[in-house]
Design goal:
single chain, 450 residues, repeat, TPR repeat-containing protein, Ycf3, protein prenyltransferase activity, TPR-like_helical_dom_sf
């Protein structure tokens, strides 16, 4: 074999030599250790694990052997076994930054971020110049919603290694979660300039553009991500949301369906597809999707609120109340859910509870026109006509051409026997919405009463 061939295929050459060494001495721990690392580099993880386990059995007090075995277990996503292997390495060599950082990665994969941070901090205390550990620390901080601290950690990683696409990409994600879309896109641009064949970077930039309402750019990026990885469920889901935003509902539905074929447990896509079904009046399909999202994630606030609203529209009031109650229990300041629950209480003639919900909603968001109007209607039904007029007037200041509010104010004037104002409001309501049957009937009753 020539030197050029050796250079081009050195892993295979190394593997052949380690095979020969082990054939000569089947108890050669160091050869198993080296071969195990080569096999891992070649993607042959199970064989790698066998070799590294054999090395640990032969020399159980070598921390490097346990640490490398932990790394293979981490890549196999056998997280508990990986923790044990790294812990054994750290027990043998407490000042072992690589093993501490790698165990931190496993804690992070298990979403045990506080334990991950303990390991990352210990590793960095031993060696503060390890860019990858600063970046991993940033990702745990991001997961804990400590966004500014995460930005600082990613920036520290990039100060050490400016050409670090993973750190750039994850700092970009953090900026996006902070709603700083220009900073996020700048990081994704820099990462893609360094490594232009990574599907996840295009997908993350596309999602950022979608959230920034740059749907054309989002669709271009997400399509590029899918060119690079045609089985990328997350990118299909995000592109489906972008298609829905621009009104291409068939393309959106196709993307959502494909995402769920690839990942049947993709909760966010069930929710997004539910919104699409809701907006196209496929109520039963929407409820099914929201229900599946809730089944997968019982505390999914947005899905609970949306399903509650659909139950309300179907006059399934007890089911609606159950969903709104759970939404508000999980998020007491959810103004929309409070207003919607108030609507249910109003329909059920539970007026005091309705008013309490409308008041809470408006304390959170004072200019929610529909809630102001619903409170006005509740006052009208309670014959609190002055309070009703106050609310209807405020609603019409904010939304002057609201047929529903005009018709209810007209009815209030009618109850107060202010017939001319009642006629003006009811007529105006009919002009704005000729299909407002309630306004037609109310004006008919006005004619009889005048």
């Amino acid at each position: 074999m020539s030197l050029e061939n050796l250079y081009n295929d050195r892993r295979e050459a190394a593997l052949a030599d380690f095979n020969r060494a082990i054939a000569i001495d089947e108890n050669y721990a160091w050869a198993y250790f080296q071969r195990g690392q080569v096999l891992r580099e070649l993607g042959r993880l199970e064989e790698s694990l066998d070799d590294l386990t054999r090395a640990c059995d032969l020399e159980p007090d070598d921390p490097a052997y346990h640490a490398e075995r932990g790394e293979t277990l981490r890549m196999l996503r056998r997280h508990e076994a990986a923790i044990e292997a790294f812990s054994r390495a750290i027990a043998l060599r407490p000042e072992y930054p690589w093993a501490l950082g790698s165990r931190g990665q496993v804690w992070r994969a298990l979403r045990r971020h506080h334990e991950a941070l303990v390991d990352f901090d210990a590793a960095l205390a031993l060696n503060p110049n390890l860019a990858w550990i600063h970046a991993e620390r940033g990702e745990s901080l991001r997961a804990l919603n400590q966004h500014q601290e995460a930005i600082e950690a990613f920036s520290r990683a990039l100060a050490i290694d400016p050409a670090y696409p993973w750190a750039l990409g994850h700092r970009g994600i953090t900026y996006r979660e902070m709603r700083d879309f220009p900073a996020a896109i700048a990081d994704f641009d820099a990462a893609i300039a360094l490594q232009g064949n990574m599907a996840w970077l295009y997908a993350e930039r596309g999602e950022t553009r979608r959230l920034a309402d740059d749907f054309e750019g989002a669709l271009a990026d997400l399509s590029r991500a899918l060119e690079l990885d045609s089985a990328y469920a997350w990118a299909f889901g995000s592109r489906g949301a972008a298609f829905r935003a621009v009104g291409d509902l068939n393309a959106a539905l196709a993307d959502f369906n494909r995402a769920l074929e690839l990942d049947p447990g993709y909760t966010w896509v069930y929710f997004q597809r539910g919104l699409l079904h809701r907006n196209t009046n496929r109520t039963d399909e929407a409820i099914a999707d929201f229900s599946r999202a809730i089944e997968l994630e019982p505390n999914y606030i947005a899905a609970l609120a949306e399903r509650g609203e659909l139950f309300r529209l179907q006059r399934r009031y007890e089911e609606a109340l159950r969903d709104f109650n759970r939404t508000i229990e999980l998020q007491p300041d959810h103004a929309w859910a409070l207003g919607s629950r108030g609507q249910v209480y109003r329909v059920l003639a539970r007026y005091d509870e309705a008013l309490a919900d409308f008041n809470r909603a408006l304390a959170l968001k004072p200019d929610m026109v529909w809630v102001i109007a619903e409170r006005g209607e509740t006052h009208r039904l309670l014959r609190n006509y002055n309070e009703a007029l106050e609310d209807f007037n405020r609603a019409l200041e904010l939304s002057p051409n609201d047929s529903w509010v005009l018709s209810r104010r007209g009815a209030t004037y009618q109850s107060l026997k202010i017939y001319e104002e009642a006629y003006i409001d009811l007529t105006r309501a009919i002009e704005i919405d000729p299909n407002n049957a309630w306004a037609w009937a109310q004006r008919g009753s006005l004619f009889r009463q005048m």
